[in-house]
Amino acid sequence: MLSLIIFLPLLGGLIILFLPKTSERAMKQIALICSTASLVFSLLAVTQFRLGGGMQFQERYSWIPSIAVNYHLGVDGLSLPLIVLTAVLSVLSVIYSWRMDVRLKEYLFLFLLLETGMLGVFAALDFFLFYIFWEVTLVPMYFLIGIWGGPRREYAAIKFFLYTLVGSLAMLLAILILYFNAEPHTFSMLELIRQQPLADAPLLAALAFWGFFLSFAIKVPMWPFHTWLPDAHVEAPTAGSVILAGILLKMGTYGFVRVSLPMLPGTFKAYAFFIAVLALLGIVYGALVAMAQTDLKKLVAYSSVNHMGYVMLGIAAAAGAVGDPSKAAAAATALNGAVFEMIAHGIITGGLFFIVGVLYDYRAHTRGVDEFGGLGARLPVYSGITTLAMLASLGLPGLMGFVAEFLVFLGSFGVFPYLTAVAVTGVVFTAAMFLWTIQRIFLGPLNPRWATLADMDAREKLTLVPLAVLMVIFGLYPKPLLDLINAAMSGLVTALR
Amino acid sequence: MELVVFGLASAGALAGGIGVIASRPPVRSALSLLLVLGSLAIMYLLLAAQFIAALQVIIYAGAIVVLFLFVIMLLHMRSGEGRVEKLRWQGPVSYVLAGLFLAALLYAIWTGAGPHMAEPAPGFGTAESVGRSLFTKFLLPFEVASIVLLVGIIAAVVVGRPLAPP
Amino acid sequence: MSASDLWSIVPELWLAGLAIFLLLVDLLTARKSLVGVVAVMGLLLSIIPIGSLLTQGARTVIFGSYAVDGFAVFFKILTVIATALVVLAAIDWLPGRSQYEGEFYALLVFTALGLVLMAASTDIILLALSIEFVSLTSYVLAGYLKGDVKSNEAGVKYFLYGAAASAVMLFGFSILYGLTGSTNLYEIARRVANAPLPALYLSIALMLSGFGFKISMVPFHQWTPDVYEGAPTPVAAYLSVASKAAGFAALVRMLMVVVDPGRLNWILLIAVLSAVSMTLGNLLALPQRNIKRMLAYSSISHAGFLLIGVAAFRGDFGTPGLLIYLLGYMFTQLGAFFVAALIGQQLGTDDIPDYAGLSRRAPVSALLMAVFMLSLTGFPPTSVFIGKFYVLAGAIDNGLLWLAIVGVVNSVISLYYYAGVIRAMYVMPAASTVPLREPAALQVALGIAGLGTLLIGLYPQPIIDLARSAVLLLRI
To answer: Based on the structure, what is the number of domains in chain C?
Structure first.
């Protein structure tokens, strides 16, 4: 089942690779069919998922026996929502890219390869496999930015490539340190969590921890490793930005929850405060810099830095509570909030990047916030959805972002009260930023330049309406998703207590 | 006595070596080479390798240097061409490195000479023992050498034949 | 010595016979590509006797001068595959450039014989002789394009450097002989225990210059870019892969059999050389515009990576990692050179900016080149990734974490120039949209190289098994 979910997109990509260049329609259809099939199977997995059942749908085959590498997949309440999110955003991106006409074949192939890589990262339970999928996501993203990106695409692409490669190789060293200290040597993540091989070797544990940290923190990206993000986001094509913000960033936070927290809890606890401070800096810095942006895409990009700061704050809080039973409840809340924020940010910011694309790619060809004005009357549907997404992003109660941020603050307040108090102020900045942006774009007198702009067409509605619906549904009734996440997180917190 | 002969032979070899690279007319270089080879033959004798010494004289001094001389004669090599010195800092550096190497070598000899050195086998160096080891212990190198010579001939043909007009 | 000893060197006899047979075929036919085809067939057939050695135990034959062990067999396989691929590539590349096509293939097969001998010698006389053998043919092959000034320069330069390096190495051998009174490696290993250390150090240092030259290790690397640039592209490919591999084989056999690292700490020496080679090679590769020079500098850096495997020889990762790396690198590097050969032949240029728009003009070659570049960087799932993974694991297993970190940093640096090639092919606009002709034999060679790169990356288990058995059998 999981293999099917992961490799269906790649299969489609390979078929597309062998199609003649002229059959563009067939290529798009295959891409849509394969990514939709992947989504359907992932939803099927959700319906069959048993709450509290731990790792499920496991598949395990021996792959390289002489170094104990297995092809081992499985999902729990942490990875399943992320897999569904990946599948959803991928399908929507394919729909959005329907009008793509530049080098379509390569575009679709790379896109589907990217989807396979991302799904694999979330499902892999063997470090070797995890690492391979992790690296597989880098290459297509490089091409997506480098070929279909904006004017400074080459710079942005290589910067993204180099930054993230630094991280992944640091992770490789950390993985190897874990491997050689486990007895018997193993790459199995579950086995490594059980063994805690570095519990008695603080120096090596610190080395491994910082190796993982570098990798995940660059991916998240945490302040001060965030500098690749604005470049990459601004230059990437719309669908690339969506995937980058919606899913690739989650690989970093996913790594913290899946790897750093359970495998090196003691070390993580020792540095938790420091990391929380970095997260806080990201929150404040992201919000403030976003406020100063006039480029809509950059604005959303920096708001990502801000939101990922919330996620990291929640995770750091959970790490800070390791070994302290009195704070276990707070830790569980913070983790639930962090994971919920991952999903929420994926949906909301993914949506926001689509929104920017709708305006930029086919209509205004500019992203200057100040150049618009009064679009609200001209583009009612577009304005409605944009306002909804921005309000969700700033954390308006009743929408998805609120639930996530509320849980994060609630949980981390029990661990790092002062930091959390400062972090809450970030919400104010974010709110100010988005409200101001809405005002500048949609309110006021209509700029005559945009008098002929058309509202969203059916295809664009098809990409954005589902996301808007999800924002509302999970904002009003987050219980099913929270139950799913909580099943995994409470287990994790119990193990760490 | 041995030391004196060794001293003379090595002085000859060194002087010849310098002569090969320092003298301008090719003929003088070739003759200096003869001096080197001859001095080496004496050293082989000192090392009780009489067979090799004889070979050295017959093949190198007798055949190869003569061949060189023929080639030089046939080519009428122009001599006395001024050369342009292209190496700037490499010259001095090479002296320093060579000095260091000499020091290392002397140190190694000083600490290592004496009882550590392996004793040669009885009958070492005679024509019989050389022949015996060539056809037993060193059979494979011997045969490989023959292939190397064959390849050398092919290579020489490829390198040496002039380009045909296209 | 007995008749069974002869059976053990059937692969070598076969190669020697094949080379001479090729000369005869060349004499009898006017279609020179036929000679190449016969060479490929003959090389492939040699896999049969080589494979039959796999099942036999490790031993030395012919008065202990020649090893028949897994290690030697591994390098026989590697050499034969590399030679066959290079001959295939040359069939399309060479015509019109040289009058001596038939001899070219024969010389390549002779070189293969020399390399095979190099990897299996257990006697320093034979080792020196086979190194000279390989050098001799390599000089000629590097300068094979007689009308081409750059090729001439490559040949002469390679000869001058090579002769000097060989002389120094022989001096090292002679010291070793003086200390032990034997030329047999295993005999030397027994007797060397009482040898004085300074002389032993000196001898190892001198020998390293010879091996270092063959594997283009810093500081014996200076010849590499000029020779690769000037030599015929298939020859450059061959030198960077097969010659390097055999150099490593000789180095590993010498160090592991003869010198006990407890007595003479060569591990640190090799580790430092490895770090320097990786870093210097990479930094010098960064500004290169010529693809062959870039690959040359990157091959210096890969030599550094491979040396990690030599330094981290303890445990299950270092030495097998070296072998896996060599095999994986062989496919990838050959592939990259073949693409360079194709472009050089079709466009008459070796400059990376001229690769602009290749993804449109020669999509298959461009895709393969992208795979090769990513493989050289060390992206999974490719063959060089498995090799890098193994040597890095070996370094950590041997407590050389610092070396692993140097390696990782260098991998990142190398991405920059490898990505430069990808950028040219995929991102930069094409100067022309005329599709390039992709000749058949070269295409086959490229396909095999690509397949090898990906297959080893996806399912490395058989290669790992082979490499492990090769290492187990190394110490007789």
So the answer is: 1
